[in-house]
């Protein structure tokens, strides 16, 4: 698994629950290190071990932790680059949804060896969409809950009101349903093209 995935888990725990919580989690695993290097590749089982240890330490199901990581990636100041990458997808939340199919390719432009889930959006009706999340071969992390948290945070970022449903999964695909209840429900976060 790419180090960026493991590093995202680490940064989520450290930024949300504190450095001591992270050191307690990683220390119990006896991996021989306490921090992940973003550009290294780690054995897939290491990611699974870290997720389950985090779930145990926080006393929360793995899917909830993954969803919170997705939200963290968009909403925390330390991950502003991820938000910027996503906001380049369009002026409205619906524009963003329709650009999700291209997101894996855009992520690989930034980090060529990053393996990310495939995304496929289908319109079910005027304001209802189904998103298929195709987990990469050999992945020990299910990305559906991460994408769910990411969508929730992006809807807030755009000021849209959405209802999100996790519909279930097969071995390779997870399905999410997105009900866009209002495109301009609230004031979204400011976004400008140029970096500040």
From TrEMBL:
Q: Upper taxonomic classification of the species? A: Bacteria, Pseudomonadati, Pseudomonadota, Alphaproteobacteria, Rhodobacterales
Q: Which residues form the Heme NO-binding domain?
A: 2-159
Q: Which Pfam families match?
A: HNOB
Q: Which PANTHER family match?
A: GUANYLATE CYCLASE SOLUBLE SUBUNIT BETA-2, SOLUBLE GUANYLATE CYCLASE GCY-32-RELATED
Q: What is the top-level taxon of the source organism?
A: Bacteria
Q: Which molecular function term from Gene Ontology is one that the record holds?
A: heme binding
Q: What is this protein called?
A: Heme NO-binding protein
């Amino acid at each position: 698994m790419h180090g960026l995935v493991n590093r995202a888990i680490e940064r989520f725990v450290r930024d949300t629950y504190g450095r001591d919580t992270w050191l307690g989690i990683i220390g119990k695993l006896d991996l021989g290190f306490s921090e992940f290097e973003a550009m290294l590749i780690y054995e897939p089982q290491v990611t699974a071990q870290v997720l389950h240890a985090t779930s145990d330490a926080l006393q929360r199901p793995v899917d909830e932790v993954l969803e919170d990581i997705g939200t963290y990636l968009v909403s925390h100041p330390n991950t502003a680059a991820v938000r910027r990458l996503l906001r380049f997808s369009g002026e409205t939340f619906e524009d963003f949804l329709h650009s999700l199919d291209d997101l894996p390719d855009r992520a690989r432009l930034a980090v060529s060896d990053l393996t990310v889930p495939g995304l496929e959006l289908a319109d079910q009706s005027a304001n209802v969409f189904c998103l298929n999340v195709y987990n990469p071969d050999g992945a020990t992390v299910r990305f559906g809950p991460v994408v769910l948290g990411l969508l929730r945070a992006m809807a807030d970022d755009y000021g849209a009101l959405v209802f999100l449903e996790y519909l279930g999964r097969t071995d390779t695909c997870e399905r999410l349903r997105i009900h866009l209840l209002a495109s301009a429900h609230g004031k979204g976060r400011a976004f400008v093209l140029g970096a500040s």
